[in-house]
Amino acid sequence: MEHLTFDYPAQRAVTTRAHVGVVGSGDLEVLLSPAVSADTLTAHVVVRTSVDGYSHIWKSVLDRFFTRYDGAAQIEINDFGATPGVVALRLAEAVEAAEQGDDA
């Protein structure tokens, strides 16, 4: 089990929560919530993965995601062997769910 953390600059506050996916064979869950400190515009990502030795892949996927996403959020990813494509999909789903929550 590997535990990774990443931080990215953000431009706007996130005000809602989202939960997508499930932890299961070949999948993962993403929990997105407002940043811990409203004063600091930073996205903080915590990855808990069952697959050791792939921090460089996680960094690449998250770097690409944060070129498009600018929300100050706390993101927790619980992984059970998901591919980079599934990770990108779940992150996009979490953002969409959180943004739809803003409209409600």
UniProtKB/TrEMBL annotation:
InterPro entries: Mal_deCO2ase/Cit_lyase_ACP, Malonate_deCO2ase_dsu. The modification O-(phosphoribosyl dephospho-coenzyme A)serine is found at S25. Covalently binds the prosthetic group of malonate decarboxylase. It is found in: Cytoplasm. Its main location: cytoplasm. Keywords: Cytoplasm, Phosphoprotein. One of its GO terms (cellular component) is cytoplasm. It comes from the Bacteria. NCBIfam families: malonate_delta, PRK01220.1. This is Malonate decarboxylase acyl carrier protein. It comes from Paraburkholderia phenoliruptrix.
